[in-house]
Write a structure and sequence with these properties.
The complex is a heterodimer of chains A (545) and B (503). Chain A has helices at residues 11-16, 59-70, 90-98, 111-127, 144-165, 185-193, 213-217, 242-256, 273-276, 344-382, 402-405, 429-434, 441-449, 479-497, 502-517, 530-537; strands spanning 137-141, 176-180, 197-201, 224-230, 262-265, 289-295, 307-311, 323-327, 330-334, 385-387, 422-427, 456-458, 467-472. Chain A is α/β, with parallel strands linked by helices. The longest helix of chain A has 39 residues, at 344-382. In chain B, helix 2 (70-78) packs antiparallel against helix 9. Chain B is globular. Classes of the chains: A alpha/beta (545), B alpha/beta (503). At the A-B interface, helix 2, helix 3, helix 4, helix 5 and helix 6 of A face helix 1, helix 2, helix 3, strand 2 and strand 3 of B. Chain A: InterPro entries: Glutamate_decarboxylase, PyrdxlP-dep_de-COase, PyrdxlP-dep_Trfase, PyrdxlP-dep_Trfase_major.
Chain lengths: 545, 503
């Protein structure tokens, strides 16, 4: 997470405290000994922020202080910025609580947890059409970031082995990896940390804000370890065309004899596409797809802390990356960047697979899409907004088919363009022409005041001038909430249009305040970090996901 | 096969779990069920399956915390749905991480300039991530240095004891750094400072010093390593620094042995990692990496992540992750304070000393002491753990002792020592927070019983034990059938049959 360093915004508070002895003047009681949380020491004394206190406090007080502080956090339910799941069945909460102290990697002690882990792998391999679930191999990770880096590392090592076998240099020129400029930060991190040249393919409106396979081919050469194809761009939710990319790489291989594999980053989509659009070809059905990752904590419907990566077979996971660990009476194999980690999220994943089954996951996915279409259409119909995501638009060509003539079923998911249940929108061109001085980011601030977290951000490089607002329609974003969100959005937009409305002036103030507050507790601006990597080298901007 | 295929009777939804079709058939384990099942049934099914797991409290093999107060659990449960990296939604989590980093940096005596702490730090999933990050930072720093001096930068190496945790091997392998090992001897398990420093050359990116090896719990002499490295740097014009792997010791030494100099008080210590989920007393899922100052974190590995318009710096391998463990860590700092940690660590040290003394004095029927304690951890000079081996040749080995203890519920690992001392077998008990003296007494009783049983057992029993051990090892390897043909020649395990202490 954020690198932190010492900050001192508390001087003011320190100087403003009552000066007094540790004993209460009248009663001579020692506040250390008072049991009631709010009357104990930390009711008035500053809580320890940068030093461990010399004396502790009661469990009740410690609980209450931290609990109260955390209530300043946004409500996870209203956080529409994030793909990360925030609801689980109470039965699963209970299960997780019971298993909170279990360590996933301690296979010898927790053999059943390990079996559950293996079952999840088998189930996912089967769901993604691995040629043989017995051949597929995979692991749970903390999230998709770890999974993507493992996937990249495997591709890099295979490339190195091939080059070495062919007697070619692995250093001059070094390896490269190809991905769309809309890639999430983890993909780029892999390139940077593991010393692979990162080739970002520019995006455009025509490429639907994501990877353009034809353009990507211009970046592929014999030193390309693979192509990261993203099933569900975090910007606009568009699926990148895995099939088309695969076909083009087939042609390339035919021409040049060079095999370039695909890793599918299905952080969000790999738990959506199999259920909502099972006919879509994106997974191990395509022989070129060697590995797939997903986040259990996104549309896998588990709390944050679980991701998965699966390789189509052992051949695509180089042996020399796997570590064999010998413990008491047991042998374990490990390929991960983390070691000890909680087992509860993996147990929760299995709970969902068992509890929901295929039908349950499909029903939830279809609901997500239906609500996302409702939101998209309402936004476009208002005239204020233009929707960039396409999941509410029918498949090209469908308009003229017989289906339409007979009044096609609007609820049929197959008649819409596939994508993630994400609604990305911006002010419509007409609106911008009419109200050029209204800034879109104000919407974010004003929604925040009502409790909604809807981010406003720039698109990936090459389209960074376009700002979008994004709503992720998760399971708990039910119709009632969409209704309220639309009402709030319309109210805010209309208020902004009125030049004399208080919203206008209030907002300018509000926005100033929030941007000021954010620098607290983070590395100081200009401390040499932000400028060098974020702006120059790094093409992408990570979005909350 | 779906359980539905076996449906015998229509369900009403009111059955007891054990009267449903699920309880009466096999649940699909390699593909998804077609249909849903009620949450309460899924809960019961998984809960029952998990009964096969061991009891965390009786697991003396692991350093990982298995007890937290109810209040802490409640706090963690309330925050399960919070995503740590989502600063816009969850900004208080970030603030709490900042506080923890500051608290830990000061605990490790990070240098201050003008009253300002120069250290930087980050929370991780565990020490593995922290160590990989530290090696990455050191590698990049070294590359920049070599490039600037116009020297080759393609052969970086890491100097460390071969008793390191497997994540060091991983860091080296995944980041393509050569491993240079100091090897254990039959009577020396903590790196010899002079011999370790002799391995350092111009291509060394980092020297690893272990504060508490997982084998015997000994602290390496960081102070002496620091002194010798300083001399070598001066004599040869090098700029090599030390990373202290304080996965376990980082939260023990400051409380149990505050005068021991192993941290940023030493000028060549550039980074330290510690596991919050070991003696930091939090459940599995949190580690810490702290760097002395910004010069040890090259800019080009830091990412600026643009969250909703406010740029923020990121240096991690994981992205979205749970925030509850960082919250749990802060709870412990607040709840326990230095005094609370000191009380706990003192208790653990006393229990560990007591247990070591008792085990050393166990006698066989012939009046000869049975065991020899390995390493010297008495009085807080090492981790609160007891490692011991059979002193004399017996009809049974350490594996048999472990196996017999297991039948009483105790999980005590037996393993072979690090490379070059691998003929040595040992048993290890980690004294964790919840291993009270009373529990230690019960354990000792069972250990005594075990010895008596094994001493009296006829030879055929010992033959049987050996057979069971051999078969169990093979069976496990085959059970992990997906990997049986792993070529492990690259690792210390593959080369030397290194076993890893669970941690």
């Amino acid at each position: 997470m954020a690198l932190s360093r010492h900050i001192k915004p508390e001087h003011l508070l320190q100087e403003s405290q009552d000066k007094k002895s540790h004993l209460h003047a009248l009663t001579k009681t020692d506040s250390n000994k008072i049991v009631h949380s709010y009357a104990s020491r930390y009711g008035t004394a500053p809580i320890p922020k940068y030093h461990i206190p010399s004396k502790g406090t009661s469990a009740d007080s410690a609980y209450q202080i931290i609990h109260d502080e955390l209530s300043l956090d946004g409500t996870p339910l209203l956080n529409l910025a994030s793909f990360v799941h925030t609801y689980m069945n109470p039965a699963c909460d209970k299960l997780m609580h019971e298993n909170m102290s279990k360590n996933l990697i301690d296979q010898d002690e927790y053999p059943m947890t390990q079996i559950i882990h293996e079952r999840c792998i088998s189930i996912l391999a089967d769901l993604w059409h691995a040629p043989s679930t017995h051949q597929a191999i995979g692991t749970a990770t903390t999230g998709s970031s770890e999974a993507i880096q493992l996937g990249g590392l495997a591709m890099k090592r295979i490339w190195q082995e091939k080059r070495k076998a062919a007697g070619k240099s692995i250093h001059e020129p070094g390896p490269n990896i190809v991905m769309g400029a809309n890639a999430q930060v983890a993909l780029e991190k892999f390139a940077r940390y593991f010393e692979v040249e990162c080739r970002l393919v520019p995006i455009s409106v025509e490429s639907k804000y994501r990877l353009d396979p034809k353009k990507a081919m211009e970046y592929v050469d014999e030193n390309t370890i693979g192509v990261y194809v993203i099933l569900g761009s975090t910007y606009t939710g568009h699926y990148e065309p895995v099939k088309e990319m695969s076909d083009l790489l087939d042609e390339y291989e035919k021409k040049t004899g060079i095999f370039v594999p695909i890793h599918v980053d299905g952080a969000s989509g790999a738990f959506v596409a199999p259920f909502a659009t099972p006919k879509l070809e994106w997974d191990f059905k395509l022989p070129r797809v060697v590995s797939i990752n997903t986040s259990g904590h996104k549309f896998g419907l588990v709390y944050v802390g679980v991701g998965w990566i699966i390789w189509r077979d052992k051949a695509h996971l180089p042996k020399d990356l796997i570590f064999e660990l010998h413990y008491l009476g047991s042998v374990e194999y490990s390929f991960s960047l983390n070691f000890s980690r909680p087992a509860a999220p993996i147990i929760a994943q299995y709970f969902n697979l068992l509890h929901l089954g295929f039908e349950g996951y499909r029903a939830i996915a279809l609901d997500d899409f239906k609500n996302a279409r409702l939101l998209s259409r309402a936004l476009e119909k208002s005239g204020y907004f233009y929707v960039l995501s396409d999941i509410h638009r029918s498949l090209e060509g469908l308009v003229n088919t017989a289906k339409v003539a007979s009044g096609y079923d609007q609820e049929d998911i197959e008649s819409y363009q596939p994508g993630l249940p994400v609604v990305a929108f911006r002010f419509s061109d007409d609106f911008q022409a009419e109200y050029p001085d209204i800034q879109q980011k104000w919407i974010q601030t004003l929604l925040r005041a009502k409790g909604w977290i809807v981010p406003n951000y720039e698109l990936a490089p090459d389209l960074e001038k376009v700002e979008i607002l994004r709503v992720v329609v998760r399971e708990n974003m039910a119709e009632a909430l969409i209704d309220k969100l639309i009402c709030d959005l319309m109210e805010i937009t209309e208020d902004l249009c009125k030049k004399d409305s208080p919203t206008h002036s209030l907002d300018i103030l509000g926005h100033h305040l929030t941007s000021h507050r954010k620098h607290q507790g983070k590395m100081e601006k200009g401390s040499g970090t932000g400028n060098t990597c974020g702006d120059k080298n790094s093409g992408t901007y990570a979005k909350a996901c | 096969m779906s359980f539905l295929s076996k449906t015998a009777k229509p369900e009403t939804g009111f059955e007891s779990f054990y009267g449903t079709n699920i309880a009466g058939s096999q649940v699909a384990t390699s593909e998804m069920n077609e249909e849903e099942m009620p949450a309460s049934n899924a809960y019961r099914y998984i809960k029952d399956e998990l009964l096969m797991d061991g009891t965390p409290a009786l697991n003396l093999a692991s350093f990982v915390t298995t007890y937290m107060e109810e209040e802490a659990e409640k706090l963690m449960m309330e925050n399960l749905s919070k995503n740590f990296i989502d600063v816009e939604g969850e900004s208080a989590c970030g603030e709490i991480e900042t506080r923890c980093v500051n608290i830990i940096a000061r605990l490790f005596h990070a240098p201050e300039e003008n009253g300002k702490c120069q250290a930087l730090g980050v929370s991780t999933i565990g020490s593995s991530e922290a160590i990989i990050l530290s090696v990455l930072a050191a590698k990049r720093r070294w590359q920049h240095m070599r490039k600037a001096a116009g020297k080759p930068y393609d052969k970086p190496n890491l100097v460390m004891n071969s008793a390191v945790q497997v994540c060091w091997e991983k860091a080296a392998r995944y980041l393509e750094v050569e491993e240079k090992y100091w090897y254990c001897k039959d009577n020396e398990f903590a790196a010899n400072p002079q011999e370790l420093i002799d391995l350092v050359d111009e291509n060394t990116i980092l020297v690893c010093a272990i504060l508490g090896t997982t084998y015997t719990g000994q602290y390496e002499d960081v102070k002496e390593i620091d002194r010798l490295l300083g001399e070598k740097n001066k004599a040869e014009g090098l700029s090599v620094y030390i990373h202290v792997d304080g996965a376990s010791g980082g939260f023990v030494a400051p409380f149990a042995n505050p005068d021991l100099e192993w941290d940023f008080r030493l000028p060549h210590v550039c980074s330290i990692n510690a596991s919050g989920h070991k003696y930091g007393l939090t459940y599995a899922g949190v580690g810490w990496a702290i760097w002395r100052n910004k010069s040890f974190l090259p800019d080009d590995i830091l990412f600026t992540v643009n969250y909703l318009g406010s740029p923020q710096v990121s240096f991690t391998l994981n992205f979205s992750k749970s925030g509850v463990h960082v919250i749990g860590q802060y709870y412990q700092f607040l709840r326990l304070g230095k005094a609370g940690y000191r009380n706990i660590m003192t208790n653990l040290t006393n229990t560990s000393d007591w247990l070591a003394e008792k085990i050393a004095s166990i006698e066989g029927s012939n009046g000869v002491t049975k065991f020899e304690i390995l390493g010297d951890n008495l009085g807080g000079s090492g981790l609160p753990l007891v490692a011991w081996k059979l002193k004399n040749k017996e009809d049974y080995d350490e594996y048999a002792v472990a196996r017999t203890l297991r039948s009483r519920g105790w999980i005590v690992p037996a393993y072979t020592m690090a490379p070059h001392a691998e003929t040595l077998k040992l048993l290890r008990v980690v004294v964790r927070e919840d291993f009270s003296l009373q529990r230690a007494t019960t354990f000792l009783r069972d250990l005594l019983d075990t010895i008596q049983i094994l001493d009296k057992a006829p030879a055929s029993v010992h033959e049987y034990q050996k057979l069971v051990h051999k078969e169990a090892t093979q069976a496990k390897a085959e059970a992990s059938s997906k990997h049986t043909d792993v070529d492990d020649s690259h690792s210390l395990q593959g080369k030397h049959g290194k076993t890893h202490g669970i941690c």
